Amino acid sequence: MLNFRYRIKDKDVAELSECIITSNNIWNYALRLQRKSYEWYGKYISLAKLQSHIAKKRKKNKCWLKLNSQSVQEILQRLDASYQRFFNKTQKHPPKFKRWDDDGSFCFKQCGFIIDNDVIHLTDRKIVASFSFLKHRAYPKDKVCTVRIKRYNNRFYVVVCCDCNPKSLARDCNGTAGIDFGLKTFITLDDGKEEVCPRFLFKNAKKLRKLSKVVSRRKKGSNRRKKAVAKLANFHAKVKHRRDDWQWKLAHKLCKQYAVIKIEDLCLKGWVALWGRKASDLAVSSFIQKLQYVAAKYKTDIIKVDRFFASSHICPDCGHKLERKLGLDEREWQCPACKIEHKRDVAAARNIKQWDATVRGDAVRPSSNRGSVSEARTRSPGL
Length: 383
Fold this sequence. Notes:
This protein is α+β, with helices and mostly antiparallel strands. The chain has helices at 14-41, 47-60, 69-87, 200-203, 205-217, 223-257, 268-275, 277-282, 284-298, 344-353, 355-358; strands spanning 2-7, 105-108, 113-116, 119-123, 127-132, 144-152, 155-162, 175-181, 187-189, 194-195, 258-264, 301-305, 332-334, 341-343, 373-375. The protein has two domains: 2-162, no CATH class; 168-201 and 247-383, no CATH class. The protein is 41% helix and 20% strand.
């Protein structure tokens, strides 16, 4: 499944705004029912019963008729999926209520829309409204499954979901690389090459501080505060887009050069707790997700080495392990066995690359399936 997102360029989007408000109202109504049911009877309303009740309620509410029946069902399915993740403990908190003007989306599954080149028509037995969008790339017209209208940062987008697989790309080389993540240098390769993150948020910290102060000075509920909040949201969106663009290019660069990429499985929550905004500005988790997605196109293996593997304290030449713990300010160290000096990050990347030769215990060998993600489980103590 592939999603193609296009920005709607029409300025008159009042019809879409009303649909977003309606979807938020239906979400809040269904969420309120679930909470009352648990509070009074201690039971969870099943998805089938909830859909049946909302379908009867929708016939009496003219505002809810702005969305077709399948769009309403999809909203309830998303609410049920959120609750199921909470019950399975894969989500920390239950779903929350939405403000009427919050960003949201609604989906057309099989009917309710017609896409004609770069124009989408909303239909209810007849064309109700039409909106043109910026079609910057083509999508397979015969494989369209669903169409979602999404509002993000006061801008509307059309997300076309197609039943197709990403195109495979060719690699230039078939080598293996070990990658060590850091704060000063974003990644360090085993051959000594480094990639420094531009730190987009840090470079624009003054502008962020200025816009945040403007928001704090505005009176809550006023139109001037809404405008200030919109400017602040636009600033964060630009920073995110620049960071994403840089990460996508780096992911393609790595997957194009290597057939196997080994990375360390970091505790990213601990990073953020220790370093705060500096760690968040790097967005390591977002980069790993992009790397895994791009690796599937190039048929590259992404192997995660266990976070308790002491990659920074092992000599990559002789295999000797330091007994003492290195401080964060010690960027170079000498092996007491072979007397060879190592740069800390490069040595860690080399150890990650040759991880299967140095680790003992129940280590798992890399999977032979291209584009897959393997995890190494070791018994080595972390230092």
